[in-house]
Amino acid sequence: MNEYQKVDRTTQLTDQRRSKANTEKITIMNKRDWSVHPPYLFPDYKSTVLRAPTKPLIPLKHTLSELTGPVYGHDMIGKYDNDLTKNAIKNGEPLGERIIVAGKVTDENGRPVRDTLIEVWQANAAGRYIHKVDQHNAPLDPNFLGAGRCLTDNEGNYKFYTIKPGAYPWGNHSNAWRPNHIHFSLFGNHITSRLVTQMYFPGDPLLQYDPVFLGVPEKGRKLLISEFKLDLTEDSFALGYEFNIVLRGKNETPFETK
Amino acid sequence: MRENKLLQTPSQTVGPYFAYGLTSQQYRYDHAQVADGNLIKDNNNHGECITIKGQVLDGEGNFIPDAMIEIWQANAEGNYNVCDFKGFGRQGTGTDKNGYFIFETVKPGSVNEAAPHINVIVFMRGLLSHVYTRIYFSDEAAANQKDEVLRSVDEKRRATLIAKRSEKNGVEYIFNIRMQGENETVFFDV
Ligand SMILES: [Fe+3]
Question: Which of A213, B134, B143, B166 is the most exposed place for a label (fewest CB within 10 A)?
């Protein structure tokens, strides 16, 4: 029985038997911690102005709907899906600096979240996305798509091989440049732990000017910056960056019922 | 009360270029995708086949062509994660010229006495953290009346959560998501 099935059982059990027990452990997923997540309205990032909800979120007590989520198996991951330096080769190697991005996905209690689906997408070394809407005047790389996926293993670990993405300009304000970044999408064990985020690189001088990054309260910012690791680095091949990710976890405070 | 050791990794916007990473086949990129807007293609379809269609609208009432919608639902008998019905769908709003997302699915059954509903997660450029909402069904008035979640919502705003059924071409429900304005959709602190 995997972790998420256990959670489902606990929830159902709790609903049915709450009145019979005096004290029992019930599964409550922690809410989003708004002291680290960015607010909806952040006017420096101009697109938030017409898209940010204006009314407060309505509290919702978690039910089975929130404590379940799609399950992904290793059968849906192809051989080169986690190797962006190989998964789109047409006539040679992609250009740019090869890197390794690896880390551990855990919950807030530090427990590994296994079988988390991680999807990534990014610009190429020149700062250009293959997306049709990207008009930046920088070359596409015929051997680089910039998208991949993998599942975390039993210890919550994942690893991608890719090319370091370039910075790119965007229209938010004059001379606006996005720092180097890789987009991450994660599916943990429930829809409550769903996370879409971006990983940045240490020492990037553009971070201090980027309203997307600065939208994150100061306390949370360093969690989005990967760390250079010599022991992840592969000799004569690629630099290693570690990016650990923390998904929402269970609050296991014992719950008193009457 | 909180005893957790680690801080949650902060959310960031999905940005304008998610399409080839997350909804690649829908947008005709040469990359596999894990889900699309058709939840029923592989099954022998217990239950009623329905279409859910809608736009995501900004504060000026314009449709948003670079949003991504994910849905998560039970099967017709009200069970999540059953082997013949995955219950998860994902659609970008950029392949329809009027920004419609379209899901082909089955109408979910009720789960633990809740009114039938579909869970929705919305992402877009300009949204630094995703939002959660729910789709309920206009033809379930009696069940909706009793639903604990709907009842927790101010009566005036409840209608934003109820998809309208029409039977003109098959069974179709319209569910628009308004980010702002007078009829701003109810978003939940999930
Ligand atoms: Fe980007």
Answer: B166
Nearest residue in A to B63, CA atom: A51
The pLDDT tens digits for A9-28 are 334 433 333 333 333 445 78
Does any CB of chain A come closer than 8 Å to the CB of residue B30?
yes
d(CA A202, CA A25): 41
DSSP string, A45-106: SGGGTTTS--SPPEE----TTTS------GGGS-TTTTBTTTTT-SSSPPPS-EEEEEEEEE
The per-residue pLDDT of chain B, averaged, comes to 94
Q: Which two tokens stand for residue A159?
A: 């690893």
* Residue ranges of B 34-73 with Cβ closer than 8 A to chain A: 34-35, 58-60, 64, 66, 70, 72
Question: pTM (2 decimals)?
Answer: 0.92
Any B CB within 8 A of A156 CB: no
Shortest Cα distance, chain B CAs vs residue A33, angstroms: 7
Cross-chain residue pair A61–B148, CB shorter than 8 Å: yes
Query: How many CA atoms does the CB half-sphere of B174 hold within 13 Å?
Result: 9
What is the residue-averaged pLDDT of chain A? 89
Contact A62, A29 (CB under 8 A): yes
Q: Which residues of A181-209 are buried (b: 16+ CB within 10 A; e: fewer)?
A: bbbbbbbbbbbbbbbbbbbbbeeeebbee
Q: How far is CA A2 from CA A7, A9, A65, B85, in A?
A: 9, 11, 18, 19
Amino acid A201 reads F
